[in-house]
């Protein structure tokens, strides 16, 4: 193989490598391209995700408010129970005093 044949063979090999690389690049680009339909679908999914996140945030705020209200109501109920227990103790003491008084009055007669 002389010098001219070697140059021609090398040129053909390099050109073939270039063409194969270009075809592979074109094929990968063609297969991985996003179509307008897919873009619309992605936009729709992104909007739905955003709406779902906003709805979740609203639900969390509502739950937090409801929890705070329930805790406040529970505190008020506990205070009322403690107040009523105090009144009940006072009433029981008064009843015992009245029984003692009645027993003394009946015992004297």
Task: Outline the structure in words.
This protein is mostly helical. The protein folds into two domains: 1-33; 36-108. It is built from two helices and no strands. It has helices spanning 3-32, 36-108. The chain is rod-shaped.
| Major sheet summary line | none
Mass-distribution shape:
rod-shaped
Question: What value does the Rg take, in angstroms?
Answer: 45 Å
| Mean pLDDT metric | 93
Q: How many H/I helical runs?
A: 2
Q: State the helical fraction.
A: over 70%
% residues in beta strands: under 5%
Keywords: Membrane, Transmembrane, Transmembrane helix
Helices and strands in order, then pairings?
Layout: H1 3-32, H2 36-108
Give a short overview:
By secondary structure, this protein is mostly helical. It has two helices and no strands. The radius of gyration is 45 Å and the shape is rod-shaped.
Quickly list its features.
membrane; transmembrane helix; 2 domains; rod-shaped; mainly alpha; transmembrane; single chain; 2 helices; 0% strand; 94% helix; 109 residues
